[in-house]
Write a structure and sequence with these properties.
- About 45% of the residues lie in helices and about 10% in strands.
- The chain is an alpha/beta fold.
- It has a seven-stranded parallel beta sheet with strand order 1-5-7-8-9-10-11.
- A hairpin with a 2-residue loop joins strand 13 (about 510-515) and strand 14 (about 515-520).
- Helix 1 (about 20-30) packs antiparallel against helix 2, helix 17 packs antiparallel against helix 18 (about 455-475) and helix 23 packs parallel to helix 24 (about 650-660).
- The radius of gyration is 27 Å and the shape is globular.
- Bound molecules: glutamine and zinc ion.
């Protein structure tokens, strides 16, 4: 083997900074408040501090080039000369990069989509016939040099050619992966350039190999890594997989002359790895510390896993299962956590320490880390027996709800009862829930947080917002109103804060995309609803109008998807507990006289497993959890759901199985094709295809909306059609919203008159 084997590493780390310094620096550069020199200096400071702390923690191989000003896929597009041609004439390199990420007044940005099954979004490179790949290794070389100058055992990281192309979008009939042979020579050159610059190891990330994105991942792996490993003038190669099992690609990679392979042993199986004889000549980088979740590692269990692997590889290094990009920076800045809870958790910094502890045990034996093992065993035992984790009353309550059944009356009969009760016009007009989060709302929230105003004053201001949103909707002539959601910071956190079993972190920020960070709540115990969470708000909104106001809830799957979840029970059990809390809320809303309740599931698609063989089981429990949350009400109560992200593909059948009375669905960008797809699977309930794209500041014209509605009427009879925007309106300005909705209502009138 050419590279010296290392023993402790991580596949990458967060780059936004412990206090989101990079977010603020990039945003002030965008706003023109600082210049590029200042931005680059801050970025270098953050990188150097991160490298030093990983080194001080005891890692003996440290990833570099995992820093990014925006996104690692965009960095790879820049590295390979594959930025879209529309940004080519922007002279400055960094501005060109940001233009591809966010667009400018003149050019559209790249599309953004979810990175595998995480809540991180990457920018989708566009590959067309005119893309001419060329290597631009400036960034990676600079970051390598920076680390080398600090005496860091640096291991440059790049996304591999297979993953890069499989995640790119072909333009004008191009199939990106067919261009693989063009990238191989570039990667060869990159490898020799890195060798020359002093890299002993390089890490090439190929997470696409754990998915079904291509019919023959093993074949691709053989082709690419057979070729790259054949080069002599190169660093030792670590091919990194994560987020699942490699399947056939594992023996394929092991059969090439690469020096090391990283496998995800949190999601994937150690036995499959141990069974591959050709690994015996390689370094195995064992991802036993979960890079995706925030639980403290079970060190003894990890040591047992590592032990099963010791004979199967030339040597074994300990690692996180993937980059720690997906977890908060460190527990140090959480001051409100009680010590018990804290002892159950590991954020990014703590995970690195766990890796080092495990590597020490491998090298020096268990006794060398005896204290750490004891401490870990104590905290795991405490977690298992904590009354907040297991609450028999919750379990009995969930079992009783499940026993009531999750099937409502026949859909057509429900529709007839609801039509009688609600008396809505044909093709009713509504909105998805949120109205603009005005600066007044944000100011009030900040003042509440800073204790400048009390809860009463805050709620008074939010009621004023509700009143103005109701008045606006009456003035516009919408048929089914909403309260506007001003009191919600976030559609998941709002509920998590009110439910037992969740807690919110103070500083647990995780990058979602670019400079946008989210703070997922932590689901740690059985979920109990202490009191009605939304009833007073909806009740108040309803008291202001004679038109029906929808109750607004977030569904169990979405609450799970946007939280850190328990690892001590199946996701489906957690989903059912949340579902019952939502079910109880629907019943309280119904008792308060609310006739329409919307349960949003925008993340239904997001949790879909990466392998198609696992998808049916997921969809079964996800659909059942939604139905559990919505089947406690009478047939006369109309249940709506809302789904976004237009590529429904594998989940389209599940949408029908949700059996909501009305499904509002993102469709503006996919031009109503989703309606044909829904017809094809026999969806027979009502549907509100989004008639305009709320992601853009553009105000849609009446004619466009009329055209969309007419297209929708080709697919769906008027009795089952609703009209609404694509998604919630909270990111738009008040002026845009008012103008757009005025046109939407006018369009509804025109189309109704034609019927
Ligand atoms: N009801 C939510 C809103 O309007 C739905 C948001 C979403 O789909 N992501 O904001
Ligand atoms: Zn939406």
């Amino acid at each position: 083997m050419t590279g010296t084997p290392f023993t402790a590493t991580t596949l990458g780390s967060a780059r936004i900074g412990p206090n989101r310094q990079l977010k603020r620096a990039v945003e002030s550069y965008w706003a023109g408040r600082t210049d590029q020199t200042q931005l680059r200096a801050l970025a270098a400071d953050l990188r150097r501090a991160a490298l030093r702390s990983l080194r001080a923690a005891g890692l003996d191989s440290i990833p570099v080039n995992t820093f990014s000003f925006y996104d690692q896929m965009l960095d790879t597009a820049a590295l390979l000369g594959a930025l879209p041609p529309r940004v080519a004439d922007i002279d400055d390199e960094l501005d060109r990069y940001f233009a591809a990420a966010r667009g400018t007044g003149k050019v559209a940005p790249l599309e953004m989509t979810k990175w595998f099954d995480t809540n991180y979004h990457y920018l989708v490179p566009e590959i067309s016939a005119s893309t001419t790949f060329a290597l631009h290794p400036g960034k990676i070389l600079d970051e390598l040099a920076e680390a080398v100058s600090l005496d860091i055992p640096a291991r440059p990281v790049v996304i591999g050619p297979i993953t890069f192309l499989l995640l790119s979008k072909g333009i004008d009939g191009t199939t990106p992966v067919e261009r693989l042979h063009e990238l191989i020579p570039l990667y060869r050159t990159l490898l020799s350039t890195l060798r020359e610059a002093g890299a002993e190891w390089v890490q090439i990330d190929e997470p696409a190999l754990v998915t079904d994105l291509h019919a023959d991942p093993a074949g691709l792996a053989t082709q690419v890594y057979g070729d790259l490993a054949a080069g002599t003038d190169r660093p030792a190669i670590l091919v990194a997989s994560y987020f699942g099992d490699l399947g056939d690609a594992l023996p394929a990679l092991a059969a090439t002359d690469i020096e090391a392979l990283a496998v995800d042993l949190v999601r994937g199986s150690a036995d499959a790895v141990a069974a591959v004889p050709t690994l015996r000549s390689k370094l195995l980088v064992a991802g036993v510390v979960d890079g995706r979740n925030i639980w403290r590692n079970d060190l003894s269990a990890s040591l047992a896993t590592l032990a099963t692997l010791l004979g199967s590889a030339a040597s074994v290094a300990v690692s996180t299962s993937c980059s720690t990009l997906h977890v908060p920076h460190g527990l140090g800045s959480e001051s409100r956590l009680d010590d018990t809870l804290r002892s159950w958790l590991a954020f990014g910094e703590e995970k690195v320490a766990e890796v080092v502890t495990l590597a020490t045990a491998l090298r020096d034996g268990r006794d060398a880390v005896g204290d750490a093992l004891d401490d870990c065993a104590r905290s795991l035992a405490a977690r298992r027996s904590d009354p907040r984790v297991h609450d028999d009353a919750v379990r009995r309550h969930v079992a009783a709800a499940v026993a009531e059944g999750i099937t409502r009356g026949p859909a057509a009969q429900r529709r007839a009862t609801q039509d009688d009760r609600l008396g809505l016009p044909v093709v009713p007009a509504t909105t998805i829930g949120s109205y603009p989060q005005t600066s007044a709302i944000r100011r009030a929230r900040a003042a509440l947080r800073a204790d400048e105003i009390g809860v009463d004053e805050y709620e008074r201001q939010m009621r004023d917002e509700v009143a103005s949103v109701i008045a606006l909707q009456e003035d516009l002539g919408l048929d089914v109103l909403v309260h506007g959601e001003p009191e919600r910071n976030d559609m998941v956190q709002y509920f998590a804060e009110q439910l037992d079993g969740f807690f919110a972190t103070e500083n647990g920020w995780v990058q979602s995309y670019g400079t946008r960070c989210v703070r997922p709540p932590i689901l740690y115990g059985d979920v109990r609803r202490r009191y009605p969470m939304t009833v007073t708000w909806i009740d108040y909104a309803q008291s202001l109008t004679d038109r029906p106001v929808k109750g607004m809830l977030t569904g169990p799957v979405t609450i799970l998807a946007w939280s850190f979840v328990r690892d001590d029970q199946p996701l489906s059990d957690s989903a059912n507990q949340i579902a019952v809390a939502i079910r109880d809320e629907t019943v309280d809303l119904e008792d308060a006289g609310v006739g329409i309740i919307q349960v949003d599931e925008p993340a239904l698609r997001e949790l879909l497993p990466l392998r198609s063989e696992d998808q049916a089981a997921y969809l079964r429990w996800a659909v059942d959890a939604f139905r559990l949350s919505t089947s406690g009400v009478a047939d006369a109560t109309q249940i709506h759901t809302h789904l976004c992200y237009s590529e429904f593909g594998a989940v389209i059948g599940a949408i029908s199985d949700l059996d909501a009375d009305v499904t509002s669905i993102e469709a503006a960008r996919s031009h109503m094709e989703v309606l044909d797809d829904l017809n094809a699977i026999g969806y027979a309930n009502s549907v509100g295809p989004g008639v305009y794209d709320i992601h853009s500041p553009r105000v849609p014209e009446v004619g466009e909306i009329v055209a969309s509605l007419r297209a929708a009427l080709d697919a769906v009879p008027a009795q089952r059609l609703w009209i609404n925007p694509d998604c919630g309106l909270k990111t738009r300005s008040a002026e845009e919203v008012e103008a757009s909705l005025r046109n939407l209502v006018t369009a509804a009138h025109i189309v109704r008159a034609e019927l």
